[in-house]
Amino acid sequence: MVTILLDSSNTNLSVGIAKDNILLDYISYEAWQRQSEYMIVELNKLLEKHNIKKEDITDVMVAKGPGSYTGVRIAITIAKTIAVALNAKLYAVSSLRVEKNGDVPSICLINARSNRSYVGVYQGQEILLNDCIMKNDEVMKYIADHPDYSVCGDTKYLNVEGIASNTMKEMLDLKDSLESINPLSLKPVYMKD
Fold first, then answer.
1. Which pLDDT tens digit goes with each residue over 105-151?
2. What are phi and psi of 188, to 5 degrees?
3. CA dist., res. 73 & res. 69, Å (int)
4. What is the C-alpha to C-alpha distance for residues 26 and 12, in angstroms, rounded to an integer?
5. Are strands 57-63 and 2-7 parallel, antiparallel or unpaired?
6. Smallest Cα–Cα separation from 143: which of 113, 175, 117?
7. How far is the CA of 132 from the CAs of 23, 70, 143, 161, in angstroms?
8. Which residues contact 155 (CB under 8 A, 6 or more apart)?
9. Is the Cβ–Cβ distance between 16 and 98 less than 8 Å?
10. 106 Rama sector, left if φ>0, alpha if ψ -120 to 50, beta otherwise
11. Strand 57-63 and strand 116-123: pairing?
12. Whole-angstrom Cα distance, residue 71 to residue 9?
């Protein structure tokens, strides 16, 4: 069983490949507004590096948002196309949820611009706070009120030191808790106030 993992919901481009639920390899780097140019190229590099044919892909996992409007659409479009073309199972997960710090209570953040943040709070498989938008001052208060929680994801814009998680590993770890979905029914998650 070969699973590919895709996320371009924020400034980074992240592509991973797993076999039998073990993460073999991944790439992740800042590619703001260039993810559409590089995602397929990077996926092909990983497949070639590990001698895996496209026809061997059985599962596709994608971060469905929230995040960058265009970035979310890029990964979802590629994931849906691969799933349909190869008759692979498709799984979608919150872009915030894959930022969590393993089983540690984690406040996961993505810059929503205009002095706002996309926020989700997780502990292992449990959702402590559903994905939402908060004003940045509310986020800072939430962080102060939960000093034992890890702060993860995009934190530089808040001048907060955060934990960098391995989003590809977190995504793969969530796979067994998700149901596969019909590629034609998958819609990006765009949050608005």
1. 999 999 999 999 999 999 998 999 999 999 999 999 999 999 999 99
2. -65, 155
3. 7
4. 13
5. parallel
6. 117
7. 29, 19, 15, 21
8. 109, 161, 162
9. no
10. beta
11. unpaired
12. 5
| DSSP of the chain | -EEEEEE-SSSEEEEEEEETTEEEEEEEEE-TTTHHHHHHHHHHHHHHHTT--GGGEEEEEEE--SS-HHHHHHHHHHHHHHHHHHT-EEEEE-TTGGGS-TTS-EEEEEEEETTEEEEEEEETTEEEEEEEEEEHHHHHHHHHH-TTSEEEES-GGGT---B---HHHHHHHHGGGS--B-GGG--------
Rounded CA-CA distance 44/166 in Å is: 21
* pLDDT tens track for 19-70: 999 999 999 988 777 778 889 999 999 999 999 999 999 999 999 999 888 8
* Cα dihedral 5, 92, 131, 113 sign: positive
Q: How far apart are CA 10 and CA 5, in angstroms?
A: 15
Which tokens in the block code for residue 10? 């924020």
Give pLDDT, residue 186.
95
Residue 190: predicted pLDDT: 84
Backbone angles phi, psi at 38, to 5 degrees: -110, -20
Cα 128 to chain centroid, rounded: 18
By CB neighbour count within 10 A (0-12 exposed, 13-18 middle, 19+ buried), where does 33 fall? exposed
